[in-house]
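Section 5: illustrative case.
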């Protein structure tokens, strides 16, 4: 891939241990401004999370359904601290995930992914393709997650246990010069990788220059961004780094289809 971003200044959200997208954009020639709009914190419901991990490792769930790699990382950390492994009950227990990033984390942990939506890479897409059944499903979520998975899987006959695996909190965000750059058009693009990132960016930047491309990772993030008052330039067709890079290319080349 050519360095189509040569010289472009791009604001990229980062969290601890997750700078792959920023590195990729640098390789494509971008001047990356890394910003911690949000931070991932430990759950305040640790006892409940530990109990859920124990039940999973004991084989008491038929499925686990996950929409964020943060959830899997949090579960794996709990299991490791107690000398257990999330992969022990597989099979017969099965795993459903959303997105390439979550699938990669699952593979690193040693979990086999049974189901990943073939169409919509979001909670609603997972529900649409999830089988009907009568067993138990573990759904680890962040503190800001909605109840799409819980309600959707319950409608398909499953007994659903949700547990808070991690918390999303505000990070420091942009500094004063960064906020001014967004407002004046001194940056070329801003990437938004989640609804919480979109809301934090919008709160910090009430003025976004019309020349700044706002690129979002998927439909859910696009909805959150628009609800926060942002004009979305383009939406990634897949919710992963590859999809974001392709969407950014379209935005920079004026193809916002």
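Designed sequence:
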């Amino acid at each position: 891939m050519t360095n189509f971003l040569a010289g472009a200044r791009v604001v990229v959200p980062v969290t601890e241990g997750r700078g792959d997208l920023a590195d990729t954009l640098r390789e494509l020639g971008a001047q990356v401004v890394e910003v911690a709009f949000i931070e991932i914190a430990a759950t305040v419901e640790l006892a409940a999370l530990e109990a859920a991990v124990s039940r999973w490792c004991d084989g008491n769930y038929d499925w686990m359904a996950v929409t964020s790699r943060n959830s899997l990382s949090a579960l794996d950390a709990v299991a490791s601290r107690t000398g257990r492994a999330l992969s022990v009950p597989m099979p017969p227990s099965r795993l459903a995930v959303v997105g390439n990033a979550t699938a990669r984390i699952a593979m690193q942990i040693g979990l086999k992914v049974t189901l990943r939506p073939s169409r919509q890479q979001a909670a609603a897409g997972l529900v649409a393709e999830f089988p009907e059944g009568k067993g138990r499903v573990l759904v680890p979520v962040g503190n800001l997650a909605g109840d799409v998975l819980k309600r959707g899987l319950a409608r398909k006959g499953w007994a659903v246990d949700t547990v808070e695996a991690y918390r999303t909190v505000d990070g420091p965000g942009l500094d004063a010069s960064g906020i001014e750059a967004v407002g004046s058009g001194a940056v070329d693009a801003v990437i938004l990788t989640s609804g919480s990132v979109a809301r934090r960016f919008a709160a910090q930047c009430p003025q976004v220059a019309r020349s700044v491309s706002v690129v979002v990772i998927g439909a859910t993030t696009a909805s959150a961004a628009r609800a926060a008052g942002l004009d979305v330039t383009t939406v990634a067709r897949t919710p992963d780094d590859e999809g974001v890079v392709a969407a950014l290319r379209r935005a920079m080349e004026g193809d916002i289809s």
